[in-house]
Write a structure and sequence with these properties.
heterotrimer, A mainly alpha, B mainly alpha, C alpha/beta, A: two-stranded antiparallel sheet, 2% strand, C: alpha/beta, Rossmann fold, six-stranded mixed β-sheet
Chain lengths: 306, 329, 249
């Protein structure tokens, strides 16, 4: 019993980590290439979830919804880049924080205006409903397993994109030396818009996929955004590899901490007190891990050279 | 040698205006406006604290809600224990609650300072975007702790039965409580001005402008910044305890990332690094909230648009528009 | 020869495959100006950075006043008495020239944790700072912000700040750069007297100034000291002529 539960929790941790990776990869790419900290990334996540839920409800197809979420998030990302972010490249981080904080307010209230204050619900597509049998007698939700696979596919896709394609070469050049790629004759403005839209699409994808597991509502993006910050701080800003490792670490530590710590403290303090202490500590656990990692490596595990 | 700053008359005007609001409210028998002015004064005080780190030191803390909330919970928890007469702790020494502001304030200030000392020591090892994200993360840690710790209300928050007391003053009267907050704000502004012009303030501002230069003259930036971060947290923590008393309610929302964002907004709206920037910012913000909130419940949408406009087109904030660039001696 | 105040031994620094400091050893003795010359990219500025502590060396030792300072931070080295000017002016741009110098004076006086007394009304800070500005001819510009100063004025402000530290040795990285003939000439005279206060390690491209001032010249090429000696020895050194002056003379 305990083993099967543990396996399930580990998979939950991996699934959570995958979702964080989709968020963190976009954030770290945008920061690495353009030097912009984008708080509104959580809004793009929310937008993906809303687009998916709305289109899926209207058409009855989750898959159309998923397409819509990618398109909506990418389009919103491109528009935001063209209208706002573009003016922030030469500004300090404070201006970037403020402007993208303002974008959160605009996106959140705008979404509330369009969809009302009640949460939307998104159903798991029929093909992916149900559970699969795993070794050791464990069973696991097929849909969550699919999310894990999508995440792995995206990670591989990003790796190939960045290491093997022309766009990837430009992204890498942009990370190391902005003037150099201008000298190479790359249209840097278009490159920035494309990278921003790509990051936005990843966030939208994450939002859409998670939308089927929880309610779709305004404000769903920011807690995930802040966790994604923790991920890239741990992994090292600008590093996709760091985002992957950090996301797995945060996903697993958070999920397993919430599962194991209350049980652990219940052994010493009794069930009621122990659960309380364990749960409170579990809610702080990833931040403690972050602090410990930073104490040893202030620039994260895979700090890109700056 | 001392020249009058262009903003000095504007500062007096702002201070006078804020004092005038509750008096006018009394005359008009509209006591609600006293609450509004008190809210302005308390948020301004919190933002003066942040301005010390952000404006003078260039430390973009996206986690000052942590200190605001710690101050708030200090007031809430101490007063809860005072009213139910149960000790706060019994070991190693017995400590009871208190409903005396003169006890609550120092506790709020010291606790905020201690938390800032620990989180600051870790966060300040980094800089730039890392610092922003880490301060945000630490505040979020405390937020989640508050929501998951049921003893003091968890997610639901904690109500204070009565406003805490100040010896010799009836704090239940809105005007009295406003005057207490106003006096603390003026004291904090005075302290801010002294710090800004002092040796410590000089080093702190130099650390923002050019930390290599600061180190090259033999002053290590780290301890200067850490001290500023702690001082800044202390002021914001004090404001938090007042905020709890204003609302007679504390909840994790005081610790939330939105609160941290709002505190930054207050500083920027008014004018970063300026003495009265936070005051102008808090007055504007509360006014927006009140006026726009009267028109539409979507007032934050307009706040977002205004903020975006300020960042993109009016970078000096309100005082920047009114008084021109910051001048240093 | 007098005893060395600053003594660098076998200093090494690489960035990946690129070795920028390759076993450099040099001394700076009381009362002298030791010039460090070499073509662009020879590693002169990186060497100054390592001595001042802004860049950490990979190996070798740096001794200052008989003490190994190789592990100390920038601020600690400055407090011990290393006064430095930067190749590209590095000032607090929003502060006036006066307050820039006062920052150094307050550091020199000790603690920076006084948080109550206004510095601009503290003669123990303003007077020495004005003094230093006067020495470099900037007294009239004391209340102009550093950002508004001209290039040459900023170079002189850098030197005033270094002076205010009352250092035991100066590290000057191209103080003449972009100064124009008049400025260079007056600065040359100034540095000539300054060596009595503390010895100067001088990185400089202006050969007239170097030959007029230097007691000793070291030539750095690709991170190595290829020759070190008096001005006339260096002028006549065949290897130096080939490696360096070949392009200039």
């Amino acid at each position: 019993m305990q083993t099967t539960l543990l396996i399930e929790q580990i998979l939950n941790g991996v699934q959570f980590g995958v979702m964080l990776f989709l968020m963190a990869a976009g954030l770290t790419l945008i920061f690495g290439v353009m030097g912009v900290i984008n708080l509104a990334h959580g809004s793009l996540y929310m937008l993906g979830a809303f687009a998916c839920a709305a289109v899926a409800t209207a058409t009855g197809s989750f898959w159309l919804g998923l397409m819509a979420s990618l398109a909506a998030a990418a389009a919103a990302g491109a528009i935001v880049e063209l209208l706002v972010i573009r003016r922030l490249y030469d500004r300090d981080h404070l201006d970037q924080v403020l402007a993208t904080f303002a974008l959160i307010l605009i996106f959140s209230e705008g979404t509330r205006w369009l969809f009302g204050s009640f949460p939307l619900y998104l159903n798991i597509p029929p093909v992916l409903s149900g559970a699969v049998d795993l070794p050791a007698g464990a069973r696991y939700q097929l849909y969550r397993l699919a999310i894990i696979l999508v995440g792995i596919a995206v990670a591989i896709g990003l790796y190939l994109l960045i290491s093997k394609t022309r766009l990837g070469m430009r992204i890498r050049a942009g990370q190391s030396d902005r003037e150099m790629i201008a000298a190479l004759g790359v249209d840097i403005r278009t490159l920035y818009t494309v990278v921003f839209a790509l990051g936005a699409a990843l966030a939208g994808l994450a939002g859409a996929m998670v939308g089927a597991l929880q309610s779709v509502q305004v404000g769903m993006g920011e807690p995930v955004l802040i966790l994604a910050f923790v991920v890239i701080v741990i992994g090292g800003i600008g590093s996709i590899k760091g985002a992957l490792v950090g996301a797995a670490l945060v996903g697993l530590v958070d999920t397993l901490g919430r599962f194991l710590l209350p049980q652990f403290f219940a052994l010493f303090l009794g069930p009621s007190q122990g659960t309380t202490v364990g749960a409170a500590l579990a809610s702080m656990l990833i931040y403690i891990v972050m602090a410990l990692i930073l104490a040893v490596r202030p620039r994260g595990l895979f700090a890109a050279s700056t | 040698m001392k020249r009058m700053r262009a903003e000095t008359p504007i500062n007096f005007l702002l201070a006078g205006l804020l004092l005038l609001v509750p008096l006018a409210a009394l005359a008009l028998e509209e006591p609600f406006y006293i609450t509004l002015a008190t809210r302005m004064a308390i948020l301004a005080l919190a933002a003066v604290g942040l301005n010390l780190a952000l404006g003078l030191g260039g430390l973009v803390s996206f986690g000052h809600a942590a200190f605001f909330g710690i101050g708030g919970y200090t007031a809430g928890i101490l007063s809860t224990h005072a009213s139910n007469a149960q000790p706060l702790m019994t070991w190693p020494i017995e400590i009871g609650g208190s409903d005396n502001m003169l006890v609550i304030w120092p506790v709020a200030v010291v606790l905020s300072g201690l938390v800032a000392l620990v989180t600051g020591a870790i966060s300040l090892r980094t800089s730039g975007v890392y610092f922003i994200m880490i301060t945000l993360a630490f505040a979020q840690m405390i937020y989640y702790f508050a929501t998951s710790w049921p003893a003091y209300g968890g997610e639901d928050g904690l109500s204070l039965g009565l406003r805490n007391a100040f010896p010799g003053i009836n704090t239940a009267l809105p005007l009295n409580f406003f005057l207490i907050c106003y006096a603390l704000l003026i004291a904090a502004l005075y302290l801010f001005a002294r710090i800004r012009d002092s040796r410590f303030g000089t080093a702190l501002q130099a650390a923002r402008q050019n930390q290599v230069r600061l180190a090259a003259v033999g002053i290590s930036p780290f301890p200067i910044r850490l001290a500023a971060f702690v001082l800044s947290a202390m002021m914001t923590g004090l404001a938090g305890s007042l905020f709890a008393d204003l609302n007679r309610f504390v909840s994790p929302s005081m610790l939330s990332w939105q609160m941290s964002g709002e505190l930054i907004v207050l500083v920027i709206l008014g004018g970063t690094g300026r003495l009265f920037g936070p005051v102008a910012g808090a007055m504007l913000f509360v006014l927006f909230e009140f006026i726009l909130g009267g028109f539409t419940e979507r007032w934050q949408l307009f706040l977002g648009l205004i903020l975006l406009g300020v960042v993109l087109f009016a970078r000096g904030g309100l005082l920047g528009l009114l008084a021109g660039k910051v001048r240093h001696g | 020869m007098a005893e060395a105040i600053l003594s660098v031994r076998n200093l090494r620094k690489s960035y990946g495959a690129l070795t920028v400091t390759d076993g450099v050893s040099l001394d700076l003795c009381a009362g002298e100006i030791h010039a460090l010359i070499g073509p662009n990219g020879a590693g002169k500025t990186t060497l100054i950075h390592q001595i001042a502590g802004t860049v950490k060396q990979d190996g070798g030792t740096i001794a200052f006043l008989g003490r190994d300072i190789g592990g100390l931070g920038v601020a600690e080295r400055a407090r011990l008495g290393l006064g430095r000017s930067f190749q590209i002016s590095s000032l607090a741009p929003e502060f006036s020239a006066l307050r820039n110098v006062m920052l150094a004076v307050q550091s020199q006086q000790g603690s920076s944790f006084h948080a109550f007394r206004p510095v601009m009304r503290d003669p123990s800070l303003t007077e020495p700072a004005l003094n230093m500005l006067e020495r470099v001819g900037l007294a009239g510009r004391a209340h102009v912000t550093a950002a508004e100063l001209s290039h040459g004025e900023r170079r002189r402000l850098e030197i005033a700040i270094a002076l205010a530290l009352c250092p035991r040795a100066f590290l000057f990285d191209e103080p003449m750069a972009g100064m124009g003939p008049e400025g260079s000439k007056s600065l040359t005279g100034f540095l000539n007297d300054l060596r009595q206060e503390a010895p100067i390690l001088l990185v400089e491209h202006d050969m007239d100034a170097v030959f007029a001032l230097a007691d000793r010249v070291s030539v750095l090429v690709y991170g190595r000291v290829i020759a070190s000696g008096s001005v006339s020895e260096i002028r006549n050194n065949a290897e130096v002529r080939r490696a360096y002056f070949g392009e200039h003379i």
